[in-house]
Design goal:
Blueprint (H helix, E strand, L loop, with lengths): L9 H19 E2 L2 E2 L1 H29 L8 H14 L6 H18 L5 H8 L4 H9 L13 H13 L5
Antiparallel strand pairs: 1-2
């Protein structure tokens, strides 16, 4: 059974997905090399997770707040853009280090009793079951092949700077 389908709250669902992604990210780091198969699973999972938040969770929270975004949504969106940019080039130990560092700053903003997910559980209490189904049924995001051109690396640095993340 899919562990993401046995949840009662947004917080539980998405924190469990964070843990799954953390395990995949750990598995892809094998010394000085990257396990590309594990990284491919991590990459696809991370992009799907970001899509769940950007396309389903944040718009729902904004609607339930009469058009006002969650207080932490702006920073989350900046981090998501930087994370997505980090998924573009072929993974290297330095790319993976930056992903780990960014997630260590980003995930606590979403998790825990004062995080985005807990706030969304309260906001969406009346439609929680429906929202959980939508999140669980979020489609995979098409994943393009890696691109290692200078524009990819410039975009990473620009987006990390815009997010205020000096990694």
């Amino acid at each position: 059974m899919d562990p993401l389908r046995t949840t009662a709250t947004i917080q539980e669902l998405l924190e469990r997905d964070h843990a799954r992604l953390d395990r995949l990210l750990t598995a892809c780091r094998t010394g000085a090399t990257i396990d590309l198969a594990a990284y491919a699973q991590f990459r696809a999972g991370l992009l799907r997770h970001i899509g769940m938040e950007e396309k389903i969770l944040f718009p729902t929270a904004r609607r339930l707040r009469d058009g006002r975004p969650l207080d932490q949504a702006h920073q989350a969106k900046l981090d998501h853009a930087a994370l997505a940019a980090l998924m573009v080039p072929t993974p290297t130990p330095e790319i993976v280090r930056k992903v780990v560092a960014l997630l260590s700053l980003h995930n606590p903003m979403e998790e825990g009793p004062t995080g985005i997910y807990a706030a969304c559980d309260v906001l969406a209490a009346r439609e929680l079951a429906e929202l959980l189904v939508r999140l669980q049924n979020a489609p995979a995001i098409p994943v393009a092949k890696h691109f290692d051109g200078p524009r990819a690396f410039a975009a990473i640095e620009r987006l990390l700077q815009a997010a205020g993340r000096n990694l």
